[in-house]
C-alpha cells in the first residue's frame, strides 16, 4: 500500500507540474499598447456625488461631461499637430468634503489635464485647494458659494451664478412680487445652503420684509416637523430653504401636513425634476418658487434644446439641472487646449481665462476671478406637476 501511495503522489505531482507549465505557456504577458506617435491622450476628470441623496444631480453632471467627451472624439479634433483622444476619469465624492479631497488627489495622481466638478460647494471648496496645488484648472458646473472664485486660485472657474446673485434675486422677488411682509429662513448648514440662506435674508430685509426666524437642519435630514412647528407659530408669508431637493421635497410635504400656508422659496437645489417626485401631492400650483443658476434666451435657446435632445437620446433621461454646464465645461477645456496647441495646464490656462465660447448654456466668458460674466438666473414655479418658467434675470 505504501509503494502504491508513493507512486500515486508522484504521478499527481508530475501532472500538476505539467499543467502549470502549460498554463504559463498559454498566457504570455503582453506589454500595454502605447498611443500612436501622432495621438495625444487628454484626461478630463469629473467629480460629483454619484451616490447618496443627491446622486441624481451628480450623475446628471457626469453624463453631460461624458456626452461632450464622446462628441469631441467623434469630431476628431487636433491639439497642436496631434490627434486628440479624450478620456473621462469619473470619481464619486458622495457630497462629502473628505471624499472630495481624496477624489481630487486621485485625479492629480492620474495626471489629468483638467477637471469638471465638483457638484456641491461643500466639496468644491476643499478640492479646489488640491487642484490649485497641482496647477490643474478646475471648472465647477454647479457650485455657487462665492468663495470658490475668491480664493485667488488662478485655475478656479465657475459656470453658474453664485449665491450672492441667487439669494439676492429671491429675496427681492419674495418681497416685491410675492408681497411677503414676513419671511422665515431654514438652512442645512452646508457651504451651499448657509451661504444662500444668508444672502436671501439680507436681500429680503433690505427690501422691507421682517425676518421672523432662522432655523437649522442638515443635508441628511428628512424630518422637519419640530422646526416647522416653531416657524408656523410665527406665521410667515414665505419660508426660504437653503438646501437641496432631497430635503426640500419632504419639507414641503410636512408643511402641508402641518397646515402651513406659506410659500416655499429656494435656490437651484429645489429647481429640479426630482423635486416634483419628492414633493408628491404637496406640490400645489404656485406653491414653490425657485431659481436656476443659469438660463438661456433668444437665439441661445436653440443650442440648449439641441443639447437636451442629444442628452435624452444618449441616456433616455431628461436633464435634471446642471448637465449643460458640465458639457460646456469639457468643451471649454478642449477649445482652450486647441487655441494653445497644448493640453498642458500651464500652457492652455491663459487661453481659458480669455475664452469666448457659445455653448449649450449660452455665451461663456470669465471675469478676473474666474466667475462667469453676465451669469443668468431663471426664475421658476411649479404648475400642474411641472416646472413653469417665469423670467430670465441677468
TrEMBL record:
The lineage of its organism: Bacteria, Pseudomonadati, Pseudomonadota, Betaproteobacteria, Burkholderiales. InterPro entries: Leu-bd, Peripla_BP_I. Keywords: Signal. Residues 42-385 form the Leucine-binding protein domain. Belongs to the leucine-binding protein family. The keyword Signal applies. PROSITE patterns: PROKAR_LIPOPROTEIN. It comes from the Bacteria. Gene3D superfamilies: 3.40.50.2300. It comes from Malikia granosa. This is Branched chain amino acid ABC transporter substrate-binding protein.
